[in-house]
Amino acid sequence: SFDPTSDLIFHFDESLPYHPNGNRFTVTLNDGQQKQSTYYSVGGGFVVKEGETAEQSTVTLPYPCDCGDDLRLHCQTKKLSIWQMVYENEKSWRSEADIRADLLRIWETMLDCVYRGCHTEGQLPGGLNVMRRAAAIQQKLLGADCEYSNHSEWIAQIKECSDSFPRVVKWVSCFALAVNEENASFGRVVTAPTNGAAGVIPAVLMYYICSYDTHEDDIIRFLLVAGEIGTFFKKGATISAAMGGCQAEIGVSSAMAAAALCECLGGTVEQSLMAAEIAMEHHLGLTCDPIGGLVQIPCIERNAMGAMKAITAANLALESSPQHAKVSLDAVIKTMWETAQDMNEKYKETSEGGLALHIPVNVIEC
Hints:
The chain is mainly alpha-helical. Helix content is 52%, strand content 6%. The chain has helices at residues 4-7, 68-78, 82-90, 96-117, 134-142, 151-161, 165-184, 200-211, 216-236, 241-244, 250-264, 269-281, 299-318, 329-342, 355-358; strands at 22-28, 34-43, 46-49. The chain has a 3-stranded antiparallel β-sheet. It is globular, with a radius of gyration of 21 Å.
């Protein structure tokens, strides 16, 4: 027998050693026997059972790649772009048709999310009384007389009206806000690499699509590059704010988007790695201090900031000579992990420091 009102006990003052996002379930049976299992949410939707590894690969990749140096070596040796190298690895798991279909499904999910967020008004749930802003911004940018009936027509209208730098900047912010307002409203998002940072990559990809002549193949290449860069942070550091602060979420998503945009705009392998490094370098030490424990303030706006930093990083890398760079992507990943380990625990998604401590929840009106 089990009564959740009396038999479910939470130990809020305890933390498990492997990862802060841990749940240990201990069940006492009628005969007194106990059964126990422990699970950890390690970021990006990955859940690991204690004693097991997150992923058990059963394939041998043509280009095993755990860091930027591995990627650079493979690409230089075989004269491949980043997306080509990743694509060859992906074929070890699934067919070319499946790779294409799955990546386009991811993009369609992202686009659906951006579209919904740009057309939904109201107040976010949770008690902070935060008002959604993306819909009002996009309506102001497009104008009240603009007509469309689907995603493609909407993007076409955006392209027509994004004829100035200030409007482009506003659109990028609008796209990012839209995704994370959806996330805060229990809408469907793509973890990229996490839910809290889900708006950066769609916003930068929308910027790319709306600013340049692109096709489906360009979207696939963008996502392949972004995903590969994300794996380096997952393997060499963390993509969990509970482990590394917001640098592990917004910082990583910005680095992923920067590298992808750089390659899609014609950047070399070295320039794309440089773009990822620049984006992360300027997120180092970013804390996670959500007000009220909700992924709303400052999280939603941080996605807009991360998207703009990604675009800036990509353009800086495109105009730079990587051989003159002083900091490598691998060095910045190592630095990020060391910074995460040194960071005070109260700045790691606990809402016990920073803005969460100094902004009273009961007086917030946004």
